[in-house]
Specification:
Layout lengths: L1 H11 L28 H22 L4 H5 L9 H22 L10 H4 L2 H8 L22 H21 L8 E3 L7 E3 H23 L8
Antiparallel strand pairs: 1-2
Helix pairs in contact: 2-7, 2-8, 4-7, 4-8, 6-8
Length: 221
């Protein structure tokens, strides 16, 4: 998994300043119940709403595109909307598997909670900030995995549905299971933070899709 984590660092860059974008989800988090590590209702609602909103924004940004628009590249070294959407979906799956198959199967480590404190806000504000850009690593570069937008959206929606259902229903202590992120400004992150990271990552690259659509040479149809 270490290669995967460094891949994530490459994708988001090492943003040095907090972005000016605001989000209702970025309000200060209250700690989960100390006795069990279970999420509070506020934490559940915040994460679910954020994943739903970023999902809605991604789908809206890619809705109704012609094949020419889907595959348009502003320059040879720039990603098309199809490629950017694939990157979102591939990363989504990777992080969801990281949480469900590794982090939540690792021993609880409540002694690390102080190290993760305040990271919710950092994730929600810094990760979508596109003022710092970087090349994606090979593991997360688009390869044409999905032949059509419909196929990609179907898989993405399926993953988001699993994540949202898990956040709504789980009684597991997401705040007491951890995995380090290699970015110095993140480092120790709990499972809850990795899940909202998925929303923040899709928000970041949805903005990239909107940049493609704003290009003066973007096909009108």
């Amino acid at each position: 998994m270490k290669i995967t984590f460094f891949a994530l660092l490459t994708v988001i860059g090492s943003a040095a300043s907090i972005c000016g974008q605001s989000s209702p989800s970025a309000a200060t988090s209250k700690p989960a119940a100390a006795e069990t590590g279970m999420l509070t209702k506020e934490e559940r609602d915040r994460a679910v709403d954020y994943l739903k909103q970023t999902q809605k924004d991604f789908l809206a940004a890619t809705e109704g595109l012609s094949d020419a628009q889907w595959k348009f590249k502003a320059a040879p070294d720039r990603w098309s909307i199809a490629e950017t959407a694939e990157h979102i979906a591939v990363t989504e799956e990777m992080i969801w598997k990281l949480v469900s198959e590794k982090i939540m199967k690792s021993p609880a480590a409540p002694e690390k909670r102080a190290d993760a404190k305040g990271k919710d806000e950092i994730i929600l504000e810094k990760i979508p900030d596109r003022s710092r850009k970087a090349q994606a690593p090979e593991q997360l570069k688009p390869t044409g995995k999905w032949a059509t937008r419909a196929a990609l959206v179907k898989d993405f929606d399926g993953m988001r549905a699993q994540e949202i259902a898990y956040l709504k229903e789980t009684k597991e202590d997401l705040r007491n299971h951890f995995e380090d992120h290699p970015a110095p400004f993140l480092k120790t992150m709990d499972a809850y933070q990795w899940m909202i990271f998925n929303g923040a990552h899709s928000k970041r690259h949805t903005a990239q899709i909107l940049e493609v659509k704003a290009d003066p040479n973007f096909p009108k149809s």
